[in-house]
Fold this protein.
Amino acid sequence: MRLKEIQHIFHKELDAIYDTNEVDSFFLLLIEAYYKISRLQMAMDPNIALEDDGKMVSALDALKNEVPIQYIIGETVFFGLPFKVDENVLIPRPETEELVDWIIKKTTVPNPTILDIGTGSGCIAVTLAKKMPEAKVFALDVSKEALEVATENAILNETTVDFLKADILDSNTWSTDFKKLKFDVVVSNPPYVREQEKARMKSNVVDNEPHLALFVSDENPLQFYKAITNFSTTNLKVGGRLFFEINEYLGNDMIQLLKAHNFVNIELKQDIFKRDRMIKGQIQK
Ligand SMILES: C[S@@+](CC[C@H](N)C(=O)[O-])C[C@H]1O[C@@H](n2cnc3c(N)ncnc32)[C@H](O)[C@@H]1O
């Protein structure tokens, strides 16, 4: 079938679900990913015929079911770098790029040792390792499948990250060597969406992205933050910094939490949409 015919079918089937520009964008991303046909080639010759359009048919089906385009293609871009993604990892978000940018700007110690907790696709750990080549980066996750994706991403981006399988909520799963490590930076974008917020979320997120990466109970929404803050009081070096991505509704609770653990230089930061989405604190010198 010719490209312009397939594009026509995409619009016919998908314009009721998505904005028409978004449908064009999906179509162009797919022909680039599957057939290495650029937008320019498509614009110059929309009559190019695909010998095997089976992949486009499967992608169309998945899009009808609102599967995120990143999972369909199996790849996304974070901080200008390529990352493989599948249904075992959260699709990296733009606000997390802002968090990474903040860490890079604030980390001035030479040869920093960094730990990313709940690494998922590895987007934070791999980007920090890539952008701060002198850093020694560790990353952990409770999900074996996520760690496999993160490991692939470290290789894809030609970086070295030490990945560990551990449950940050259960110190019995931490190795003796891990317990002894001291870090200049601990960072985490842990699960923070309360069950009560599920109903207000887009169905393509709730139906496709891993719940292990997203949700916490309504009763204990700061569960991960409390555990990670506690861990950081013993495993950050003096002067070391803790960075979190946070739920925009819990900024004040997070300030209180860090204060209660004697962190100083606490700073709550908004994302480009003016929502409280990041916080940092420092272990007293
Ligand atoms: C919100 S996702 C963040 C993923 C990635 N860091 C990012 O920013 O896109 C949270 C991650 O925490 C991991 N996680 C959930 N429970 C955990 C636990 N008890 N211990 C360690 N990691 C956990 C999930 O598997 C998931 O990869």
